[in-house]
Design goal:
Ribosomal Protein S5, domain 2; four-stranded antiparallel beta sheet; five-stranded mixed beta sheet; 240 residues
Length: 240
């Protein structure tokens, strides 16, 4: 099958990470996975959630918010405020982003403060959650560097970087970094989050009205590792 950008099965889309996109945030990027474009911004707040104070929990916290802007999809997507209820998919994704970032940030070193990470999808063509995680990791590292530069933390509160990619089975082929046209036809769909040591943070996978074998699972995880290795090099270049 012919893929977008004439890429091979294990090749990701063209990925760019543009820094400093939101000047009032302490760290921000515009990350593009092909035609999927997400702004990720990390803002420092010098306080922690009330539950941490009540439980006398030391260190800081990272929380994420994710939304798809109304014009990000082919047909206009209503805002949550207009619909009067929170989008369940968006809630699930922002929890995934938060978990992924907390796995690689030293919350004790962060100190008694909160990092708010906002991920806003400007344009959606598949893989918005994986693009958001990959971009948010860079935004958070920029914010952590700002904290060091301001003398608020003695050293970078980053244990490692994190990146994510989608992988799936489409017409019998295992493909990495699915765009929308591939994602809608996938018989198996998976999102994989890994650190820069290629350790797993989270794996989300399901058969779309189908099943998959343990052999296919192994192949998909190996394919995801290949895609994430490519993303980690792009993150490294962006932060150089």
């Amino acid at each position: 099958m012919t893929r977008s950008y004439d890429r091979q099965p294990l090749q990701i889309r063209p990925v760019t990470i543009e820094k400093g996109i939101a000047p009032h945030a302490q760290g921000s990027v515009l990350v593009s996975f092909g035609n999927t474009k997400v702004i990720c911004a990390a803002t420092v707040e010098d306080s922690v959630p009330r539950w941490m104070k009540e439980q006398n929990k030391s260190g800081g916290w990272i929380t994420s918010e994710y939304s798809m802007l109304p014009y990000s999809t082919l047909t206009r997507k209503q805002r949550d405020s207009t619909r009067g209820r929170v989008d369940g998919r968006g809630t699930e994704i922002q929890r995934l982003i938060g978990r992924s970032l907390r796995a690689v940030v030293d919350l004790e070193k962060l100190g008694s403060r909160t990092l708010w990470v906002d991920c806003d999808v400007l344009q959606a063509d598949g893989g918005t959650r994986t693009a958001a995680i990959t971009g948010a990791s860079v935004a958070v590292e920029l914010a952590a560097a700002w904290l060091v530069a301001q003398g608020k933390t003695p050293s970078l509160a980053i244990k490692s970087r994190v990146a994510a990619v989608s992988v799936g089975v489409v017409n019998g082929d295992i493909l990495v970094d699915l765009d929308y046209s591939e994602d809608k036809d996938a018989s198996v769909d998976m999102n994989v989050v890994m650190t820069d040591s290629l350790d797993f943070v989270e794996v989300q996978g399901s058969g779309e009205e189908n099943v998959f074998s343990s052999s296919q699972l192994d192949q998909m995880l190996s394919a995801a590792k290949s895609g994430i290795s490519q993303l980690l090099e792009i993150q490294k270049s962006a932060l150089a």
